[in-house]
Design a protein that fits this description.
By secondary structure, the chain is an all-alpha fold. The protein has one domain. Helices cover 76% and strands 0% of the residues. It is built from nine helices and no strands. Helix 3 crosses helix 5, helix 3 runs parallel beside helix 7 and helix 6 runs antiparallel to helix 8. The longest helix is centred in the C-terminal third of the chain and has 47 residues. The protein starts with 14 loop residues before the first helix and ends with a helix. The relative contact order is 0.11.
Length: 217
């Protein structure tokens, strides 16, 4: 049995590491006692961007499996798109759907809890990139294990985080995750649609401008 004040005496910067191994109690206490730090959560997302950059351009040559890794040129926009931007869209979609489903989590809590849940994937990912410079090619299976452990650990933490933050049952949490995925796809479709429309409008007016310039200026 934990001593009184156990949670209240723990630093909010150390608390995310406690959540890694005690997620059910940790996320509930995080919500009930406001035991979280938005700054720390944003720092985790910065590390996620760093992981994307390292994974793109700094993996040892023997372990480069994708064309982008072989190319070696880091596309910062694509790194942001596949990390922080997708994360932000997911948080907004989850909060919107869960609000309609009587979810009790605030957007800030979903943001922080989601960032905390990504810690295993990010930390093990950074370790994986570092190990590509020390392991030999025949030991690549260990990197696959690290990646799988990080993904599964983070996925479990995300599930528990949403269940605790929104005060949901297991099936309702799964439903909210499915709706969140649908919401992300809808938002992504709308962004692509609007971007294409804006591009066409810009091209239309640019064509008119150049025609006028050639004829009258």
């Amino acid at each position: 049995m934990r001593r009184p004040g156990y949670y209240s005496n723990m630093s909010k910067y150390l608390y995310p590491f406690y959540i890694l191994f005690h997620p059910m109690d940790g996320f509930r206490e995080m919500k009930n006692n406001n035991k979280f730090s938005v700054r720390f959560a944003n720092g985790i997302l910065v590390l996620w961007v760093l992981l994307g950059i390292l994974d793109w351009g700094y993996v040892d040559f023997d372990f480069k499996l994708t064309m982008r890794q072989l190319d070696g040129n880091v596309n910062i926009f694509q790194v942001l798109l596949t990390s922080v931007l997708i994360f932000a869209i997911s948080v907004v979609a989850n909060w919107c759907f869960c609000t309609l489903m009587d979810g009790k989590g605030r957007m800030k809590e979903v943001w922080v809890a989601g960032a905390y849940a990504l810690m295993p994937y990010i930390f093990l990912g950074l370790l994986r990139v570092g190990l590509t410079h020390t392991l030999v090619e025949s030991e690549a299976v260990y990197l696959t294990y690290l990646n799988a452990i990080g993904l599964l650990w983070s996925a479990l933490l995300i599930f528990i985080a949403l269940m605790a933050i929104h005060d949901y049952s297991g099936p309702k949490t799964l439903m909210s995750m499915f709706l969140t995925l649908c919401g992300v796809m809808i938002i992504a479709f709308l962004v692509v649609l609007v971007s294409g429309l804006v591009t066409q409008i810009y091209s239309f007016f640019a064509t008119i401008y150049f025609e006028i310039k050639l004829r009258y200026l």
